[in-house]
Amino acid sequence: MTIEEKIFMRAVADFGKLTGYGFVRSSAGLVYEKEFMHGDFKAAVAVDEAGKVSGEVYETDSNDIYFPLRVESMEAGFVGEVRAAYEQILLDIRAHCFNMNCFVYSQANRLTREIFVRYGDSPEFPWDKFNRHGVFRNPDSRKWYALILSIDRSRLDKKLSGGVEVVNIKADADKIPELLELDGFYPAYHMNKKSWISIVLDGTVPDEVLFALVEESHAFAAVKKANRKK
Question: What does the alpha-carbon distance between residue 134 and residue 122 come to, in Å, rounded to a whole number?
């Protein structure tokens, strides 16, 4: 993963803000250039029509690409200072010209927005080591009803590979075998497979089906009437 991919992983470009920030249109899309490190280096950052960010750092005297920037083993010393300064430029662009999503996949973010509209709940990210795993819980019962995870597809099917976001939801035990026959549904990853199920959030399952199942899961997490405080 490149420096740019890491920094802009959950970021969505606001093209109006990009032009106001100083990006200019070119054959590569919108491009922003800035000298740094006392003018010894120049950053050239491009955002294409799809909002993907790429960049390069040049030595200003020779206009050559500064290749050590991409060598991960060279983290200390002068190279580390150049990389840190370049990352700061990218972070400033992200802060001023991009909106941050909770997740990477668009369907995961649509689901997040739908949950907030329906129930007023936002995801919690309780694990520092797994900071891309978001939990939705009923604030009254504190029970989980959805968990969005970023995992490798091989965790669901050993024949598959590549990263994907999935949501674990609670479902009627009698309904789970039927769901598992459909594309996009898998036995629950890392949870009780008798009462939970995993759904890939790559668009395989239509939004309306996904939202309806999450609504059922939310009902499982509701506080029983007999337990409600009077």
Answer: 9
Q: What H or E segment, with its residue span, contains residue 147? A: strand 144-152
Cα Rg of the chain, angstroms: 22
pTM: 0.62
The rounded distance, in Å, linking the Cα atoms of 228 and 205 is: 35
Q: Which of 21-25, 101-105, 110-114, 129-133 has the lowest mean pLDDT?
A: 129-133
Q: What is the pLDDT of residues 116-129, one digit of tens each?
A: 899 989 888 877 77
- Pairing relationship of beta strands 53-59 and 41-47 according to DSSP bridges: antiparallel
Q: Is 127 exposed, middle or buried (0-12, 13-18, 19+ CB in 10 A)?
A: exposed
Burial pattern 166-186, b for ≥16 Cβ within 10 A else e, equals bbbbbbeeeebeebeeeebbb
Q: Is the CB of residue 69 less than 8 Å from the CB of residue 82?
A: yes
Q: Distance (Å, rounded) from C-alpha 54 to C-alpha 116?
A: 32
Ordered by where they begin, the domains of the chain are 3-100 (no CATH), 106-227 (3.90.1150.30)
C-alpha to C-alpha distances, 190 to 45, 148, 216, 221, nearest whole angstrom: 40, 12, 20, 19
| Each residue's pLDDT tens digit, 43-83 | 999 999 989 999 999 999 999 999 999 997 777 799 999 99
CA distances from 140 to 12, 188, 214, 230 (A): 33, 25, 17, 14
DSSP H or E segment with residue 31: strand 29-36
- Looking at residue 127, what is its pLDDT? 78
